[in-house]
Specification:
This protein is of the alpha/beta class. The strands form 3 sheets. Strands 1-4-5-10-11 form a 5-stranded mixed sheet, sandwiched between helices. The longest helix has 22 residues. It is elongated. The protein starts with a strand and ends in a 5-residue tail after the last helix. It binds adenosine-5'-diphosphate and 6-O-phosphono-beta-D-fructofuranose (F6P). 6-O-phosphono-beta-D-fructofuranose binds next to loops.
């Protein structure tokens, strides 16, 4: 088993479940450190049931993680396959985001049996309603915005709050809705600096004490561009403008109950799929069930954000005033 790409809370609960479910099914379990980098460099270690004791409540990944361009090359993948053979590994479980799952698909295409499980705070993996880590990241961001709102209201300020998510607006949209933000800016919906300026002015005229815009890191305009634009027009706004980049705090911290339960269920399901002889798949949460989908289908499908939710959030901010 290996963990790869951006770490995601809930992964340790998943590692525990994989190890103990595999031991219960009669497998020997080997952990590979630092994702595909460790796979190519031969960082293999036999794991026992005690090794994964007391870890489920911690964020991060006890197996460590990495991003490596080398694994994208044929040479890197050959090195990985040679090491798997050398260590007499029969099947590989990969926990990670869309990049890591694409890497797993490459091994499957080369004939090596793999099983993936989605772990990324971005929630940009198709064929799972939620990836491990998303719920914790949302709650971390939400608590941060609640705090920002206190100071924003005290000073009557507009805050541009940047959330993570790479090219996906999922985190910004959900956190924006949950925090009742005045504006949500995501890559999936066209926005303009002029439009945000107008919304800020209107909020000021309505007598609002603050204006919170939740901006996805991949949005256009991005947080920095909007900040520069608004500061040049400070006199028109009414509100003072401040920026808060939430950053890596969204990736760390104790996983929520949801992420621990999801990680546990996905880990156990990955093992039971392999025990049934299934390979080349990803286990995901669809509705209330854990469902396995071909990795080829998972990585070739772009996950969309729910634009109905975006429109709902908009409607609740632009209601008619009497
Ligand atoms: P995430 O898994 O969180 O999306 P990345 O996109 O950085 O994170 O992917 C993690 C790692 O997976 C990369 O550093 C690389 O080693 C591997 N990977 C990503 N894309 C591919 C690809 N197209 N082919 C092979 N390996 C890949
Ligand atoms: O994929 C998870 C994520 O946190 C993204 O939201 C973000 O764009 C990226 O990883 C940051 O990557 P790194 O940890 O390499 O700086």
């Amino acid at each position: 088993m290996l963990t790869s790409g951006g770490d995601a809370p809930g992964t340790n609960a998943c590692i525990r479940a994989v190890v103990r479910a595999a031991l219960s099914s009669g497998y020997e379990v080997v952990g590979i450190r630092r994702g595909y980098a460790g796979l190519m460099d031969g960082e293999f270690e036999v794991l026992d049931g005690r090794f994964v004791g007391g870890i489920a409540h911690h964020g991060g990944t006890i197996l460590k993680t990495a991003r490596t361009e080398r694994f994208k090359t044929e040479e890197g993948q050959k090195q990985a396959l040679d090491n798997l053979e050398k260590h007499r590994i029969d099947v590989l479980v990969v926990l990670g985001g869309d990049g890591s799952l694409t890497g797993a698909l490459r091994l499957h295409e080369a004939g090596f049996p793999v099983m993936g499980a989605p772990a990324t705070i971005d929630n940009d993996v198709a064929f799972t309603d939620m990836a491990m880590g998303v719920d914790t990241a949302m709650n971390t961001a939400l608590r941060a915005i609640d705090k920002i709102k206190d100071t924003a209201s005290s000073h009557r300020r507009a805050f541009l709050v940047e959330t993570m998510g790479r090219d996906s607006g999922y985190l910004a949209l959900m956190v924006g809705m949950a925090s009742a933000a005045e504006a949500i800016v995501i890559p999936e919906v066209p926005s303009t600096c002029e439009g945000i300026l107008t919304s800020i002015k209107q909020a000021h005229q309505k007598g609002k004490a603050h204006f919170i815009a939740v901006i996805a890191e991949g949005a256009d305009p991005d947080c920095r561009t909007l900040d520069e634009y608004l500061r040049e027009r400070q006199d028109e706004l009414g509100f003072g403008v401040r920026v808060s980049i939430l950053g890596y705090i969204q990736r760390g911290g104790a996983p929520t109950a949801f992420d621990r339960l999801l990680g546990t269920r996905l880990g156990a399901a990955a093992v039971s799929q392999l025990a049934k002889g299934e390979t080349g798949k990803m286990v995901g949460l669809i509705g209330s069930k854990i469902v396995a989908t071909d990795l080829a289908e998972v990585v070739s499908t772009k996950r969309q954000v729910d634009l109905d939710l975006y429109n709902l959030a908009q409607m609740l901010e632009t209601y008619p005033t009497t």
